[in-house]
Structures are given as C-alpha cells and as structure tokens.
Amino acid sequence: MEHVGDERGTEQVWLPGLIDLQVNGYHGVDFSDANLSEEDVARACRELLDAGTTAFLPTLITSSTEVYERNLPLIAGVMGGEEFRGRVLGIHLEGPFLSPKDGARGAHSAQWVRKPDVGYLQDLIGLANGAVRLVTIAADQDGAAELSRYASSHGVAVSLGHHMADEQDLQRLVKVGAKALTHLGNGVPALLPRHQNPVWAGLANDDLSATIIADGHHLPPSILKTILRTKGPGRCIVISDASPLAGLPPGEYWSMGAQVRLQEDGKLFNPATGYMAGSSATILACANHVVGLGLAGLNELGQMFFYNPLRLIGVSPKQIRAEKRILFDARNRRVFQE
C-alpha cells in the first residue's frame, strides 16, 4: 500500500482494491434474467468496474433450470475474454439449495428452491465451464453436508445462508468444507427465537468467516459493529449484494419476481413483505459506509475488502488486474477511485 499526498498535504493511501463476491446485477442488467444477453453482461461488468469495483463475482440467485442452462455458459463466456481477465473472477451461485421457509428464503422464489443435490450442482458447474467459485447453501437441509463435501473437493467455496441453522448444523458443515456465512444478519425471518437462531449461531462459530452487506440499510450500525467486533477483521468480508437496480434512480420497479421500491436514501425493499430486495449500493459505497462509521481503517479495509474475499474463493492477489486505483483518505474518512 503506497502513501501519497495531494496538493493540500492530505495523506492518502492506495488500497490494493475492492473485491465484491455478491453482485446480482447492475444498472438494469439482471444476471438471472431469462432474456440476458452477452451484450448485457459485458455492459454491466464495464459499468460496475468503472464505478469503483476492482473485481467481482456475478451472482445468480435461485432460478429455473432453463435460466441456468442459458445464463451460466453465457456469463462464463463473457468473463473468459481478455477484457475481463483478473476482474470478473467467477460465478457465485446463491441457491438453489436454500431453505424453502418464508423469511429464511428471503427474496428467492419458492418455486425454484431445491433440496441439496450433488448431481444437480455438478450439472451447474459443468454449464459454467468450471467458472463457479462460490455457492451459498442452507446448512439445515438434508443433504447439505454431502453437497458441501462435493463442492469443496472440486474447488468451489461453500458459504452457508438463507437457513434456520443452529450451532450443530453449522459445525457439521464446517467439518465437510464450508468456510463462510452468506450475509450474516440477513436472509432470516423478521422475528427469531431469542437465543436459538442462526444469527447467534453464526456469530459464535469461529471457523466461519462472515460476509456482511454494509450498504447502510441491511444492517443497523450497532449490528454491523457487533459482527465486526465479534468476528474480527480477519474473518469478515464486506459484500454489496448489488441488485439489478443498483445504479438506477429512485422509483417503483419489478425485480426478482416482485414489485419493489428504491427510495431516495438508497433503501431497496419489497413493500408487501418489508424484506430487502438486494442492495442499490456498490462495494465502493459500502467501503465508505464502514469508514464513515469509524469501523475500519487502512488495515481493516485491506482485509475485509480485498485479501479475505480472495482467500475465500482461492484467488491469488497477483491474479487481480486493477485498472484504476482506489484511495483511502483517512483524514476525511472517505474511499474513492482515482
């Protein structure tokens, strides 16, 4: 990390980059859209990278077999080109092996949720030509351990989420290769048992890193602080969970099979259920939120936004091609792209 100074003498530091492991789409492009095209994918990737993201994983949410069959090879083909080498790092499958229960399922369609199925995961990895880097599964479903063991042994990182898992469920999955928790504190019902719930279980498990959505809406500052203090910066990974509506103006939209509302303050949610519908933030905005709350300095930013996510998906920092520099201005508490 290199120290520089501007004309006012303010000390600034180059960050190695901002890596985002969960991007569902950007600026009107939905990576899970049945009508997705190669041009859509390339445009969304270019615009997201121009907006301060150094590298990322396009994420497919729980979808039909037809969508997987169309979109996985399409996205893998685009990311395999020279333009996106070292910048679009692979694919994150958030589902379809999630809990079917309301609340735990979040905004995912119950119609396409599946029980853990090693054969089906093998098919999905094949459709993506081996580009799947991360899969989110529910730890409390029958067959989750077998699925985790298979994925881990084939170079796919396993993260646990969208479930009602207890401490025993999580530890059982750790033993067969699971490494992380997907957006800890979210993807659960609005009301939980006071003590026996997946948030406490996730916080208490020292073997699982936590991905967290730091967009200013998914987690209140007190919960964000609690997760960061409990897990420590070495076991936290900030994600944006950017939805296809990220980068668009406020308004009413149809997204992920439901009518959703994007407010002026950036909050994106389903008015009918009250549940969040992804995020409208980029990873750069998330970095600024964490810094603005005084929860991260130089070392924490480097860990949570660069080294930790790369370590989870098994990518070397040397493989990252950062075309634009990210600066951290500690005095003014801001992160920006040069």
Please provide a written account of the structure.
With 338 residues, this protein is α/β, with parallel strands linked by helices. It has a single domain, classed as TIM Barrel. It has 9 helices and 17 strands. The strands form 4 sheets. Strands 3-6-7-8-9-10-11-12 form an 8-stranded parallel β-sheet. The longest helix has 16 residues, at 298-313. The two termini are 15 Å apart.
List keywords for this structure.
338 residues; alpha/beta; TIM Barrel
Give the overall pLDDT as a whole number: 95
- Fraction of residues in helix: 25-40%
Shape: globular
Count of distinct strands: 17
CATH overall fold name = TIM Barrel
Structural domain tally: 1
The CATH class is: Alpha Beta
Q: In percent, how much strand structure appears in the residues?
A: 15-25%
The helix count comes to: 9
Order of neighbouring strands in the sheet with most strands: 3-6-7-8-9-10-11-12
CATH architectural label: Alpha-Beta Barrel
CATH homologous superfamily title = Metal-dependent hydrolases
Major sheet characteristics: 8 strands, parallel
Low-pLDDT stretches are 4-9
**Cα-based radius of gyration, to the nearest Å:** 19 Å
Gap between N and C termini, in Å?
Answer: 15 Å
Structural class: alpha/beta
Order of helices and strands: EEEEEHEHEHEHEHEHEHEEEEHHEE
